[in-house]
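Researcher: Re-running this chain for the archive, since the previous output was lost when a drive failed. Same request as before.
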Amino acid sequence: MDLATIRGNLRSGVYKNRDAFLGDVRLIFDNCETFNEDDSPVGKAGHTLRLFFESKTFSSTSASEN
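Model: Regenerated structure tokens:
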């Protein structure tokens, strides 16, 4: 999975719900973790981006539930 594929899926309406989209984004982070060392530049960037993404995802979920 990659961001270009996710963009294409968004544009073509492949995602039927939020969870399907989130699953693909999280798959990118999982693949990054699997194929890159934690202390490598790519591994560090992946961890940082995952934390940022999850914080924004949690924030938007919490806001929509209130």
